[in-house]
Design brief:
InterPro entries: F-box-like_dom_sf, F-box_dom, LRR_dom_sf. It comes from Gigaspora rosea. Pfam families: F-box-like. It is built from 18 helices and 16 strands. By secondary structure, the protein is of the alpha/beta class. It has a domain of 106 residues. The protein has a 16-stranded mixed beta sheet. A hairpin with a 4-residue loop joins β15 and β16. The longest helix is centred in the N-terminal third of the chain and has 16 residues. The protein starts with 16 loop residues before the first helix and ends in a 10-residue tail after the last strand. 29% of the residues are buried.
Length: 520
């Protein structure tokens, strides 16, 4: 709060604008769940103006991994509102081309909604427009006139991009089910639109017939010259494009780079050396590293996070240059990858005592010994445990005296013996524990009674079942515990049971694919 604001001058219930913005931004932290913000719209005009600007900053955002689609009613309302913001010439153009907008209010909108746009997603726009046409009064068939859809999309994009926007994120999808983006001139109408971009996501993995996305190709080709101030660049495609390599090289302050590519990535890896002074986080997914070394990362002195997901060909050759690196990794993520033990040992040894978070699939005794030797300061640890590694893992846990979060997947048919020993070695710093079993009966009562760790959240998946007696014990234990606040159980029958200490209520519902509520 600024020094000019004095308590004596504040009216009852008044909050300074900067405090309101902090509160609203916190409520907006998940752009896919804005129900809390909607409740603030009717408080007063000042609140309404600030909340509206947040609600309309990312109206078309889509999360592919969670299958989150824009709700039909919401998307129709969004398109109607934007159409009401068009000028008379644009409205006449839509009508003249057979697009029925007669049912949309002709009143001037309360706000300049297009000016609030900060995040644009072409797939989300495509979904919204399809929903709008499906439910328009002159449509009783499932086939949408593609020319009308393209015209409406281009008209709305021109509306967006002629605004004086504080535009900072662009997400482009190339998918068989969606139309091409508007022409390059639409995106360059405002001279500073793309130059101010800070986040760029290019989802170009889907192959399509030649010429189908010529406008998108034109934009991507021009990006190295149009936007040079990216902080975050996420590229997903099958074959690396030279223009995207140039895009990587042309950035002034790239901090986060993610690449998902099954083709030759050597040019992209080489281009990262141009970002050596700024890169903090680098992620690789579905990358084939055979014959490729990470020498371009050696000079990235500020690198803190390095991730490999579903990658292949990770060998000692891949990591060898990084043994001389100056960076001090704090987070290392190697999950579902084809690696050699030499690669993992080198990565662990290089990270050494600076490593705070480690996520791994490999749990061989040799790897666990390396972690014990070189990485004593781990606070977050996620790993898969095999039968041959249980003793080594339990020994490692007893040495991780700073551990706060632990997630273990037990690749053991019956882990009863392991689970009986686990509470004895859990560090007294641990407050978050997630266990995933394979068809294992488990006595929760015995575990909780033995556990010395001050666990606040306990998540268990794959357990055979929890009877009423155990539910009763957990409820009573949580009430009496000074630390335990939440218990989440996913059993083998597909049921999810959640207990919150302060609500004193168990909730149960079926577990569906893609449901992330089972995560700690």
């Amino acid at each position: 709060m600024t020094s000019s604001i004095k308590e004596s001058n504040l009216a009852p219930g008044y909050l300074p604008p900067e405090i309101l913005d902090l509160i609203f931004s916190y409520l907006y932290s998940d752009i896919h769940d804005t129900k809390f913000l909607h409740s603030c719209l009717l408080v007063n005009r000042s609140w309404c103006q600030r909340v509206v600007s947040l609600l309309w900053r990312a109206p078309f955002s889509v999360r592919l991994e969670d299958y989150i689609w824009l709700e039909e009613y919401r998307s129709i309302s969004i398109i109607n509102t934007y159409i009401s913001c068009l000028n008379d010439t644009e409205k006449f153009l839509l009508k003249d081309n057979g697009i029925n907008i007669s049912s949309i209010s002709i009143k001037n909108p309360l706000f300049n909604y297009p000016s609030y746009l900060k995040i644009f997603d072409n797939w989300g726009l495509d979904i919204s427009i399809k929903n709008w046409f499906f439910h328009s009064k002159d449509k009783n068939r499932l086939i949408i006139d593609s020319d009308k859809k393209i015209l409406l999309s281009e008209t709305l994009c021109k509306l967006f991009f002629r605004q004086d926007l504080d535009f900072n994120q662009l997400t482009l999808w190339r998918k068989p089910s969606i139309s091409d983006i508007p022409s390059l001139s639409t995106f360059t109408f405002h001279p500073n639109l793309l130059s101010q971009l800070r986040v760029l996501h290019l989802n170009l993995a889907y192959t399509t017939e030649s010429g189908r996305f010529k406008n998108m190709v034109s934009l991507v080709t021009s990006l190295p010259n149009l936007c040079k101030k990216l902080c975050e660049l996420d590229i997903r495609l099958q074959v690396m494009d030279l223009h995207l390599v140039n895009l990587i090289q042309s950035q002034y302050n790239l901090k986060y780079f993610r690449l998902d590519c099954s083709g030759n990535i050597a040019p992209a890896i080489s281009a990262l050396q141009y970002q050596s002074n700024s890169l903090i986080r680098v992620e690789f997914s579905h990358v084939q590293f055979s014959g490729i070394a990470l020498d371009s990362l050696v000079s990235c002195k500020n690198l803190l996070i390095l991730s490999f997901i579903n990658c292949k060909g990770l060998t000692s050759f891949t990591w060898m240059p990084l043994k001389k690196a100056d960076f001090k990794l704090q987070i290392l993520f190697v999950r579902k990858c084809e690696t050699t033990q030499e690669f993992l040992e080198s990565a662990i040894e290089t990270s050494n005592c600076h490593l705070n978070e480690l996520f791994m699939s490999d749990s061989s005794p040799k790897i666990l010994d390396s972690i014990s030797k070189f990485c004593p300061n781990i606070k977050t640890f996620e790993i898969d445990i095999k039968p041959s590694s249980t003793t080594y893992f339990l020994n490692l846990l007893s040495k991780l005296v700073l551990l706060e979060r632990l997630s273990v997947t037990l690749l053991i048919y019956d882990a009863s013996n392991f689970l009986s020993l686990l509470p004895n070695v859990l560090p007294t710093t641990l407050f978050n524990l997630k266990l995933t079993f394979q068809n294992t009966p488990w006595n929760l009562e015995s575990f909780l009674k033995k556990c010395r760790a001050p666990i606040q959240t306990l998540s268990v998946s794959g357990i055979l079942g929890v009877d009423n007696e155990q539910v009763g014990f957990i409820t009573q234990f949580a009430k009496e515990s000074e630390t335990l606040k939440k218990v989440l159980i996913n059993d083998r029958l597909g049921r999810k049971l959640v207990f919150h200490k302060y609500s004193d209520v168990w909730t149960t519902w079926p577990l569906y694919p893609g449901d992330k509520n089972d995560l700690i």
